[in-house]
Amino acid sequence: MRINVAIAVLFFCSVLGKGAQALSLPNATTSFVLPETGVDTAIAYEKYGTFENVGTSKYQYIIKDRKGLSAAAGMGVYPNNSVTTSPTYKALLKTTRLDGSVWDFVNSDDQEAQFYKWATNQDQPAGLRQFYLAQILQKSGYLAQAVKAYYAVAVHFPNTIGLTFWKTPWYPAAAALDLTAWLTREHPELGLRLEGARARIINRFDNDPHNDVFEVNPGRLIPVSKSSASSHEKAIPARIDLQSLAIKRHLGSGRVHLVQYSNDHWQLFVDSAPYIVRAIAYHATKVGKSPDNGSLEVHKDWMLSHDNKNGTLDGPYNSWVDKNRNNKQDSDEPIIGDFQLMKDMGVNTIRLYHHGWNKNALMDLYKNYGIRVIMGDYVGAYTMGSGAEWYRGTDYSDLKQQDSMLASVKTMVEEYKNEPYLVFWVLGNENNYANANNASKNPEAYYKFLNRAALYIKSLDANHPVAICNGDTLFLDKAATYAPDVDIYGANAYRGEHGFGDSFWQDVAEFWKKPVFITEYGCPAYHHRRSAEEAERMQAEYHRGNWNDIERNTAGGMGMGNALGGSAFEWVDEWWKAGPPPQYDPAIQDVTGQFGGPFPDGWSYEEWYGLTSQGNGKHSPYMRQLRPAYFLYKDELWNSRKWAERGLPSC
Questions:
Q1: Is residue 49 part of a domain?
Q2: Distance between CA atoms of 166 and 14, rounded to whole angstroms?
Q3: How many other CB atoms are there within 10 angstroms of residue 447's CB atom?
Q4: 473 lies in some domain
Q5: Which label site among 117, 239, 523, 602 has the fewest CB atoms less than 10 Å from its CB?
Q6: Could you give the number of structural domains in the chain?
Q7: pLDDT for residue 504 is more than 90
Q8: Phi, psi of 293 (to 5 degrees)
Q9: Whole-prediction pTM value?
């Protein structure tokens, strides 16, 4: 069924408008009392209506007992509308706390006003209102009610479409089911589990909402035995014994190859051992340098610089940790180097976006620190390798530019194919978002070229798989159709603290039918309404949710089994990234949000993504202040002892 809906401008987990970012409401409250939570913990929808045509484009839920369903749902969950008779709402109407656009209330600290503003709003589609009410309930600690509210989006409003900050389609029902599943997994004390749910949206990958076809199965929220354990202390779920399974398919047969088991799970093998990629993006750039003024070569500068003239590279070997954050090197803060800090953190791989690196340093990284390398070529992103003029951008239908890019790919492969530290090749860096190229206008030409490049690499090197780096799942179907010889689907994905959602892994499994690697994930360590300590804690929790989702979906896990690992973005803050001079100064760490998205305060701060910071910048590129996210990986997520306890491969 093709739909014709009013498309709301949606800034998921963000705010609309310049002034909204600085919004500070009077008499703000951080929580509120929800007077009515409903008589059902998990709504028994069959009691109050009927599900029709489940899993098809004609799916709908028909309410037969609206009064009973309203009582079961409770305030904030459709079709309950008791909010309008609430004494709290009537009191709020006499204040200024509900003044302003509904979008001003997405990231407000006044959660009570947020709730009543969205609950009484009539300007946005009902499915959008329901999603935001669920989000507010979640942030306010009403987790059981939030689960009901998210689930209600899929039950009642499966076809709602919103728009992201970039005005691309966003699907609340799919996101709501992802969050329902996540909350019930993370909080076993709720005693609920989501089973059989899927919001499948045909044609969703082309950025045109008008041809979307929705096939929705809301599944069932079923009661399960409760646990008093917290979300991070609950029992570790048993992993599947992969050795007991038959092998269904091989991709490659060299020293690095891929295996698919009979349960459809995918495993990466490196030198005959199973390997889950625990990677980090590494760009230790000096404060004050910028590619915009020609003072920085982004893709290789850290491997060339040795400002202290001691003959060793600055960041890799000469960095030190400012333990007490006083922005100076004290006597108990010796030089340690980024390579050692990454080893201590549990990193086993670094992602390099474009070749041309110091091979001696990479060999040392491998031999002395046990860290391997994923090697990339931009294949025309930012016009790298294509020879195109910047203002025209790379044209993937231009055979001359194709030959130029293939020459760059050949240089990469010939240079590194025999290096023992190489894991696999990556083509591009979210080129489908049209960063100085025409991939978004001519995706067929782009993915056909990637397939040509992949076949060319395999003719030169039979020992390493080939991946692409896509921006999330935009054009996933076209990538699968036109680049069948690429082995690994790579995605830069920033979807929120819950990770990527079951829908992400399901979509890749359905369309790509091969494994996936998260080529970038993470969030900024800055929040414009919180202290530095709180913002860094939120960053760590975001990383926890993202990595847990990746691990759950690796081979042998409880998810789809198609994840090979991920690359956290990034090692250290880069101060040049917010924009070119003179509007932005690479000697200042910018705190202006560049775009709205699912981040702690709703905005992306491009200069704050590091797991380590450079403090006040006066000792750049040497000083490191380790953030809580660093210690989360070091002590828990990538800790070798806890890794083994979870039944994960040792390397």
A1: yes
A2: 12
A3: 26
A4: no
A5: 239
A6: 1
A7: yes
A8: -110, 10
A9: 0.93
